[in-house]
Amino acid sequence: MALKDYSDEFKADAVALYESTPGATYKGIAADLGVNRATLREWVLRDRERRGGTAAAVMQAAGHGAAVSPSDPDERVRRLEARVAELEASERKLATERDILRKAAKYFRRDELVTSRFQFVDDHRATYEVKRLCQVLDVNRSSYYKWLAGAQARAARHRDDQVLAGEIRKVHSESGGAYGSPRVTAELREKGHVVNEKRVARVMRTHSVTGIRLRRRVRTTVPDPSTTPVADLFQRDFTAPEPGRKYMGDITYLPLAGGKFLYLATVLDCFSRKVVGWSIADHMRTGLVADALRMAGSTRGSLDGAVFHSDHGAQYGSRAYASLCDGLGVTRSMGAVGTSADNAACESFHASLKRETLQGDPDYGDADTCRRTVFAWLTRYNTRRRHSANGHLSPDEYERRHHAARLTLAA
What we know:
By secondary structure, this protein is an alpha/beta fold. It folds into 4 domains: 8-61, Homeodomain-like (Arc Repressor Mutant, subunit A, Orthogonal Bundle); 73-144, no CATH class; 151-206; 246-410, Nucleotidyltransferase, domain 5 (2-Layer Sandwich). 55% of the residues lie in helices and 8% in strands. It has 17 helices and 5 strands. It has helices spanning 8-20, 26-33, 37-50, 55-61, 73-104, 113-124, 130-137, 141-149, 151-174, 181-190, 197-206, 286-300, 314-317, 319-328, 344-358, 367-383, 395-410, and strands spanning 246-255, 261-269, 275-281, 307-310, 331-334. The protein has a 5-stranded mixed β-sheet, sandwiched between helices. The radius of gyration is 29 Å and the shape is flat.
C-alpha cells in the first residue's frame, strides 16, 4: 500500500524533485512518487509560501490572477500592442538562445566544460554577439578574453604535450601497461626528461593512458565481535508468499565528488522487492539503519511478526537495533560473516540503483544532487520500474494485483 503519513523529509525531497526537474508537471512527478497530484501541488505551494511568497501570489505569477483592464478601447489596444511586441521580442530572444544551446551541445560533451564554452564563443562570435553568447552559456566575458589572449601559449603547450604523450606511451607499453603516473614519471626522469608527476598524470588522463590499479572498495559491513550471534533464518531464500512476512536490508555507499560519500540503508519486502524503507546520511551509525526500519514500519502500518534479514554489520548487530526490532515485533536473521551471497538480493538491488543512476559517472556530484537522484529512483522503482522477479510488473502493481486476487478468492 502507499504511504499515508508522509514524513517532512519525504515532502521536502518530493518538492526538491519537482522544482529541479525541467518541464516537470504535478501529474508526472506525483505518478513517479505514488502520491496524489493535489497533495504534491499543496506541498509545493506551501514550500513556496514558506520561502517568501503566498499561494495567491504564486497563482497570480503563474497567470491565474485577474487584471483590471482599462475602460478606454484605444488604451487597451495600445497596451495589447505593447504586450505583443514584448512577447515577440522575448520569443526572438528565446529562439536565439535555443539556437545557441543546440549548436553548443557537442562542445558540452567534452571533459573541460568551461574551456569548451570559451571555444564555442570563439567559433561563433561572427554569428552572434560575444555578450549574448557569454550570457547564454553562463561564462564571464573577461574570462573569455583572458582565455583568448593565451591562445598562443596553449598551442605551444599542446605541441609539447603531444611529444610527451608519445614518450609516455612508450614507457607505458614497456611496462606491460602496468605503470601509473608515479612510475612513468620516474622512468622519464631516468631517461633525462625534466617533468613533474602532475603534468604526466594530466597528459595520461587526456590521452586515456591508465595503469593497472585495484579499485578502492568502501567497506560498509564491519562486524562487531562482541554481539550475540543471530541465526540465518533465510538460508538464501529471498522469496515470500505474501507482503509483510519477510524483509531484507543492507547499507551501500553513494560516491560524491572529492572522494566523499553518503550512505544509503534500505529495507525491501521479499514478496515484491518493494523498497518499504530507506534512509540516507553522511554516516554509518546505527541510526541510519534504524531510520530505514522505522520508515518500513510506517509504510506497512506494522512489522509485528515479520522476519528481517541483514548481513553481520555492526549496525545491525548493535543492542540499540536489537531493541528496536524487539519493540516492533521483528525477528532478526543474519547471514554468515564475509559471505555476500547470504544477502545477494539486497546487493543486487544496490548495484542496479547505482548502475542506473550513475550511468557510468564516477560520482553523483554534491550531496543535494545525490539525495534528489536516489530519492527519485527509489520512488519510481516502487511505482513504475518493472521487475523481472514480479513478471515485469512494478512492486506496487504486483502487490495491488495480489491484494485484488485475495479479495476475489475471499468473495
